[in-house]
């Protein structure tokens, strides 16, 4: 069926990426042998998969960190290894989450997104907002979304999902890491100087770097960088950068000096006393 659908779609659109996914019940291995377009379309097709911890409450909150650690890591690893072995083309974690705003749920968001980074996987969270879909199991239905019953943003989720990451890489990615508490970010990649476009990194300045950030590039002077718009940095090669060089970009929070810390504390005190 997937191959027939692929053929029909390609009659009118031969350029865009087609996502294909297995049956939800195929947990350990799918019945797919290749992407619907075959290897010739591997640059225009992507294997889509979902990851959910099986040990959760009625509200979707994880019951056991240990079980969810094993479950999440196993599912992502199995999907990655199968896609690599069968040469599916691209792949993406297109659904995970359905979580509340609780501490346990935030830990699950950190857990899955961290594993996804290890495998250099893009991801999308379920769900942005309640739309009366048939699959939502939590009660109230808004539990899974960014908004509560009163239409207020659930900021714990927003913060947990506002991770620093590379949107585009001018070369071959090797390693990407984001630590959600400290907001430390690292990207390792092998530069391809034939690529004229910059490496682009997204950061959430308000939530993760409120006092500014520090950027370190190794080797020194291999890249220059600019911030063309808020929350985005572009990194470009210099004339001395050699093709194939392994480059590391690190972004960390800028800490306040003692004077600014005191001023920030005093401002909060005054604001509180005026309430």
Please give the number of β-strands: 12
Q: Which structural category do the helix and sheet elements fall into? A: alpha/beta
Please indicate the percent range of residues in DSSP E strands (runs of 2 or more): 25-35%
- Per DSSP, the total helix count is 6
Mean pLDDT across the residues is 92
Question: What separation lies between the terminal Cα atoms?
Answer: 64 Å
Report the major sheet: 4 strands, parallel
Strands of the largest sheet, in order across it? 1-2-3-4
The string of secondary-structure elements, in order, is HEEHEHEHEEEEHEEEEH
Low-confidence stretches: none
Helix content: 25-40%
Shape: globular
Based on CA atoms alone, the radius of gyration comes out at: 22 Å
Organism: Rotaria magnacalcarata
Domain Glycoside hydrolase family 5 C-terminal: 163-251
Family: Belongs to the glycosyl hydrolase 5 (cellulase A) family.
Protein name: Glycoside hydrolase family 5 C-terminal domain-containing protein
